[in-house]
Write a structure and sequence with these properties.
about 425 residues; alpha+beta; Cytochrome Bc1 Complex, Chain A, domain 1; seven-stranded mixed beta sheet; five-stranded mixed beta sheet; 12 strands
C-alpha cells in the first residue's frame, strides 16, 4: 500500500493527504471527552449549473435516507443510540456530514458517516418522498420574512449566476431533478481529491489516518470540481421590494466587500463588530437602545473565495423604515468620514478575540475551524495567527475599509414588507 504523500503539522493540527487525494486532518484535544468528525467536500451551491440548482442540497438529504446496511432510522439510531449527534449542511462552497459523540465511539461514527456517503441507495421511492420534503422546506423559508429577504438579497447582489440562486433550489428545479442526475453528479464531483475527513477531540492522528485509509479506495476518482468567478457588474445602488401582508418590515442591506484572501478582511471584521455584530455595537445602540426603532438589529460577514458580503439585518414597523434607513446611512457615513477611537476599536477587537477563544473550546467548532480553513486556504490556520491579525488592526484601517466598501455602487437594499412602493429609498442609499 502506498504511503501518504503529504504531511503538515502545525501546533495541535496535523494533515495527511492519502495517495488518491483524500485528505485527513485532526485537531488533537486529549483533555476532551468528545470527538467531532466531519466528512467534507469542496462542492456546494455555486458549483451547480442552473438546470441542476439545488442538487447538492438534495444529495445531502438523500445520504440520510438509507444504505445497503442501514435504514434511515438505523442511521440515526447508530449515532443517537451512543448519546451522539448527527447532522449535515450544504453551503455555497462546501458540503459536510458531521457527527459528535464520546471519543470512545470514534470508529462507530466514522463507520456511519462513510456508510452514508459510500453506500447510500438513493431508492427511487425515497427520492420522490424527499422531493416533497424539500419543497416543504422551501415553503417554510418563504414563511419567514427574514429568510425570504436573504434569498432575495442573493438574487439582487449576484444576479443570473450561481451565488444568486437558492441553495435549496426552486420548486421547478427540484421537480426536474432525477435520481440518475444525482448519482452522476455525486460520482463526478464528490471525489477523493475534493474530500476531507476532519476530526477534533480525544484522538490520535495516526489512528484516524489508519481508519480513513480503509475507506479511501472506495471514493470516486477524478479532478476536483471548480466554479466560475462571481460577476458583480454593479454601478449603482439597487433596491428590491417584495410586498407581503405581514406585520413588520424585514430589511437587509447587503454591501459587497472582499474575498477571504483579501488582507483587508481583518479590518473588515473589526468594522463589522463595532457596527452591528453585538449588543454594544453602533447600530444596535442607535436603532434599538437610543430610538426604539427596531427589536432585531444585527450585522454579519460572509467571505467566499473571490468575493464577500456584509449584511445589515433589521426588523421593524414599516412606518419607522425611512427614519431607520437614515440612521443606518448616518452610521455608515460616520465610519467613512471619521476613524473610530482607539478605545472603541480595542473593544471590538477584544470582542472578536474573546468570541473566537470561547468557540474553540468545543470539539465541533475546532473540527469546523480546521476544515473550513483547509478548504478555504489550503492549510491549517492557527487561532493565534488570526488573533494577532485582528489585534493589529488600527482605527485608520477601519476607516479605510469603510471608505472602500460603503459606497453606493456596492449597496443592495432588500425589503419584505407591507410597503407598496420604494419611492425615496434609492436616494437614501445614494447619499
Amino acid at each position: 500500500m502506498q504511503e501518504p504523500i503529504w504531511l503538515i503539522q502545525r501546533s495541535m493540527y496535523q494533515v495527511t493527504r492519502l495517495p488518491n487525494g483524500l485528505t485527513v486532518a485532526t485537531a488533537e484535544m486529549p483533555h476532551m471527552a468528545s470527538v467531532s468528525l466531519g466528512l467534507w467536500f469542496a462542492v456546494g451551491g455555486r458549483y451547480e449549473p442552473a438546470e441542476l440548482n439545488g442538487i447538492s442540497h438534495f444529495i445531502e438529504h438523500m445520504l440520510f435516507k438509507g444504505t445497503r446496511r442501514r435504514s434511515a432510522r438505523q442511521i440515526s439510531e447508530a449515532v443517537e443510540g451512543l448519546g451522539g449527534y448527527l447532522n449535515a449542511f450544504t453551503s455555497e462552497e462546501t458540503t459536510c456530514l458531521y457527527a459528535r459523540a464520546l471519543h470512545v465511539h470514534f470508529e462507530a461514527l466514522l463507520d456511519v458517516i462513510m456508510d452514508m456517503f459510500l453506500e447510500s441507495r438513493f431508492d427511487p421511492a425515497d427520492v420522490e418522498k424527499e422531493r416533497q420534503v424539500i419543497k416543504e422546506e422551501l415553503a417554510s423559508y418563504l414563511d419567514q420574512p427574514h429568510q425570504h429577504a436573504e434569498e432575495l438579497l442573493n438574487e439582487t447582489v449576484w444576479p443570473d449566476q450561481p451565488l444568486g440562486r437558492p441553495l435549496t433550489g426552486t420548486p421547478k428545479t427540484i421537480d426536474q431533478l432525477t435520481r440518475q442526475q444525482m448519482l452522476s453528479y455525486r460520482g463526478s464531483n464528490y471525489v477523493a481529491a475534493a474530500a476531507l475527513v476532519a476530526v477534533a477531540g480525544c484522538v490520535r492522528h495516526a489512528a484516524v489516518v489508519r481508519a480513513a485509509r480503509r475507506c479511501a479506495a472506495r471514493f470516486p476518482d477524478g479532478p476536483p470540481p471548480c466554479f466560475a468567478p462571481a460577476d458583480a457588474g454593479q454601478t449603482t445602488p439597487r433596491v428590491r421590494l417584495c410586498t407581503r401582508d405581514i406585520a413588520q418590515t424585514a430589511l437587509i442591506l447587503g454591501i459587497r466587500t472582499c474575498s477571504r484572501h483579501d488582507p483587508r478582511r481583518h479590518a473588515l471584521r473589526v468594522l463589522n463588530a463595532l457596527l452591528g455584530e453585538s449588543m454594544s455595537s453602533r447600530l444596535f445602540q442607535a436603532l434599538r437602545e437610543d430610538t426604539g426603532l427596531a427589536y432585531s438589529v444585527h450585522s454579519s460577514l460572509t467571505f467566499f473565495q473571490d468575493v464577500g458580503l456584509l449584511e445589515l439585518e433589521v426588523g421593524l414597523d414599516t412606518d419607522k423604515l425611512t427614519r431607520a434607513l437614515r440612521l443606518i446611512r448616518r452610521e455608515l457615513d460616520r465610519l467613512r468620514c471619521t476613524a473610530p477611537s482607539w478605545r472603541e476599536c480595542r473593544q471590538a477587537q477584544d470582542y472578536l478575540i474573546g468570541q473566537l477563544e470561547l468557540s474553540l473550546e468545543s470539539t465541533e467548532n475546532q473540527m469546523m475551524w480546521l476544515a473550513e480553513h483547509l478548504l478555504g486556504y489550503g492549510r491549517p490556520v492557527l487561532a493565534a495567527e488570526v488573533k494577532r491579525s485582528i489585534a493589529a488592526v488600527t482605527p485608520a484601517q477601519v476607516r479605510a475599509v469603510a471608505r472602500d466598501f460603503f459606497r453606493p455602487d456596492r449597496m443592495n437594499l432588500v425589503l419584505v414588507s407591507p410597503l407598496k412602493h420604494t419611492r425615496g429609498l434609492l436616494k437614501l442609499l445614494a447619499g
